[in-house]
Amino acid sequence: MPQITEIFLDCDNTLVLSEELAFEACADLANEILEKKGLPDRYTGEQLIKDFVGQNFRGMMLSLQDKYNFKLEPDELEAYVKKEEDKVIAKLEAKAKPCVGATEELIKLYESKKYGLAVVSSSALRRVQASIKKVGQDQYFDADRVFSAASSLPKPTSKPDPAIYLHALDYVKKTAGETVAVEDSKSGALAAIRAGIWTIGYVGSYNGKEMQEEMSARLMDLGVHIIMNDWSEFERCMTFVENLPPKTDPQSSL
């Protein structure tokens, strides 16, 4: 059985209900770019979530460039990334709420002192910090245990690239085999799985039973080890993982 000593938690729509707010701002900028490039398509925040959930804005813009066959110059992209970050943070600081039950589980984990706790996100560090601070979750994480694929790496990236998980493992000096990740998106789950980490797929932030069932199936197909429908199931999910056979090669090769 694996000896779990560390828990890595995604932020957006896993700890904090931030995706809807963030994608509203992203849609405004995506549409500005499409208009500037002479392209007729336009996005709503809901459509962006459907196509790009789990990716940060930089990853989204790379995907848009591939989809519509246009190019943003590096300085142009960086200007939009900074603009998006400011817009999203303003929305989060005004309206962000915790995922149902997440804070209650964090309190229990923090007080138990059984596991190390870290946030591992694709989003920019300022955005992650603003999110967890707004909902009062920042007190459960040391400042140096909040990791961002957009800000914490020498070269910015986005999930499903496992680089941010590998970086976090290295920083906290843990192996993948003694770590559990909680992820709500396909790209996030794939990043954790590619890093060889035990992964719980959380679907409680998706609207409606049908969407939750669809995402559960997709996440299981990717290779998550168990689905968590609600944060009240977290202890049961951890018990399930802790009773799985240990990994022979805890960290997958890239």
Automatic annotation (TrEMBL):
It comes from the Eukaryota. SUPFAM superfamilies: HAD-like. Pfam families: HAD_2. GO terms for molecular function: phosphatase activity. This is Phosphorylated carbohydrates phosphatase.
